[in-house]
What does this fold into?
Amino acid sequence: MRAKVLYFLFAGVFSVLFTSCLKDTDFPDEPIIEYTSVERIASALVLNFTFTDGDGNFGLEQSDSLSPYDEAPFNHNLILTYYEKQEGAWQRFGTDFPLFSPFYSDALFNQTVPWVKPTGQNQTQEGTVAYSIVDPYYNFNSSYDTCRFEFYIYDRDLNQSNSQTTDFFLKP
It folds into this structure.
């Protein structure tokens, strides 16, 4: 009997010490993104960023095709806007091109990041996304050569993250 009491006492103390050493992550329910880099690899441009989501619901499943995920902009959860440096100022693609509306230009690069459902008691998500934008990842009808993207994400509750801007890059 005494051995059982000591065993449970030891196990209890060990559990408290072990769990007190675990990092307690407390993030807001709205996703937060942080731009890391943009790099050209072969004929693609790779956008790298990190994210956190306090309630762990960033990402869409393939079956998420009904409302509210069936219409833009929520049919994708990574939203990118393309800019070119024209005459020294950044211009959003679509503003000087009457054939393309700003919405259409955004839709060219938007992407769906899959949901990796958190397991365990802590539902917080932290991760890294590497999104490969295949060629053409720029406006090939334009003579301007300096470009960048602005981007943000939505979680499953349609909470929008902060917005981030990439470093500029040159067309190939």
